[in-house]
Amino acid sequence: xxxxxxxNFSSQEFIARLRGRDSSAVESIVRAYTEQLYRAxxxxxxxxxxxxxxxxxxxxxxxDVIPSFQAKSHVRTFIFGILYNKASELRREQVRxxxxxxxxxxxxxxxxxxxxxxxxxxxxxxxxMASESIGLIEKCLESLPLAQRMAFYLREVEEHESPExxxxxxxxxxxxxxxxxxxxxxxxxxxxxxxxxxxx
Amino acid sequence: MLPCKEIVRLISSGEYLPLIKKAELRxxxxxxxxxxxxxxxxxxxxxxxxxxxxxxxxxxxxxxESLKKQVLEEIDRKKR
Lengths: 200, 80
Hints:
Largest sheet of chain B: none
Structural class of chain B: mainly alpha
Largest sheet of chain A: none
Oligomer: heterodimer
Strand content of chain A: under 5%
Number of domains of chain B: 1
Mean pLDDT of chain A: 91
CATH topology of the largest domain in chain A: Arc Repressor Mutant, subunit A
CATH superfamily of the largest domain in chain A: Winged helix-like DNA-binding domain superfamily/Winged helix DNA-binding domain
């Protein structure tokens, strides 16, 4: 994708150099992914200063662990996995799949016992106007737990493939589905509630 | 026919669907006004967030370059 065309980051030769912390290999990987990492850190709602610090941290850890990199996944997946772990450490957040998310209760109230809508979604035009307000959607995104935000960001904004997102978050496909289900419904409910409150 | 609640779950989780179920989902969306609205909402959301991040990360390249430089310097410093 954004990697320099002359370097194949998946080649055995490159991985071997990386494991040996070869300066030019390290430099090319840092140059290739720092911007994406920084963007993702902003996507996780870290401010500019903290996002930069987080990226520095990711690379420091990367240098510590790269000699034992197994190359079972792409090196980009590996790097984003470190980002996610570091971010969860900072936020002290653990994902839970065994307890329901608040949005699931909200969804329950929207359907009858046959699964038919009793509180249907708003008129798309009004919803669209709310979604155009950057301040509003940013607030909605900030209210998501980290894992949901990361899943949504990687899948929806960066358009990473699902198997890669699963590896980064270290979750099964089923649990990624749960995270996205919760994230998208929370965001939709959040935006919609703002429209209703405004009485627009 | 699948109930609306299940349609909502399928659309929002992005669950992998076999072709037959995919066709069933499409049929449902064509016929059901509420679910079709719901699915439009999700598309609007994803557009809105792409726009948000495009705006957020339209960072000037000098800032990104200086971050890369800092990272490389830090790695270099640790090596010595």
